[in-house]
């Protein structure tokens, strides 16, 4: 056996490790059918100006990204998109939501929407914080 250590991960290397882990997981996990969830707001030219990217899997909505163009912030667009995502998740049978956000992003926004802090990664990546939130839908 040979141990290789690198700071240059190739797509092939990542694919091999992911494929093997996925195979292991799929033999054991109860719900094998996660579904993507994308909600996009577009301007008249068809450019995305806000959106949510995540997925639903079993009981959980996982929100990966929620973004609103800076010129549109403060107009409840983020709230509307978040609420729509949660409603779709409930229609898909989800009972909970999960997301993470940095201290300079939107922890107060998510608290305002009923998310509860379950963990904070301090000093991330150096002096900030990374918050992990859940919510019962």
UniProtKB/TrEMBL annotation:
EC assignment: 2.3.1.-
Molecular function in Gene Ontology: acyltransferase activity
SUPFAM superfamilies: Acyl-CoA N-acyltransferases (Nat)
Location of the N-acetyltransferase domain: 1-137
Keywords of the record: Acyltransferase, Transferase
EC category name: transferase
InterPro entries: Acyl_CoA_acyltransferase, GNAT_dom
Superkingdom to which the source organism belongs: Bacteria
Protein name: Acetyltransferase
């Amino acid at each position: 056996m040979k141990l290789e250590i690198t700071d240059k991960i190739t797509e092939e290397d990542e694919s091999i490790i992911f494929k093997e882990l996925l195979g292991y997981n799929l033999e054991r996990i109860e719900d094998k059918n996660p579904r993507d969830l994308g909600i996009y707001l577009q301007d008249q030219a068809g450019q995305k100006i806000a959106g949510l990217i995540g997925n639903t899997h079993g009981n959980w909505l996982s929100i990966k990204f929620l973004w609103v163009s800076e010129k549109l912030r403060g107009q409840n667009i983020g709230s509307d998109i978040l609420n729509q995502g949660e409603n779709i998740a409930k229609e898909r049978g989800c009972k909970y939501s999960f997301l993470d956000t940095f201290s300079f992003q939107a922890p107060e926004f998510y608290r305002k929407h009923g998310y509860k802090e379950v963990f904070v990664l301090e000093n991330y990546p150096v002096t900030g914080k990374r918050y992990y939130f859940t919510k019962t839908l």
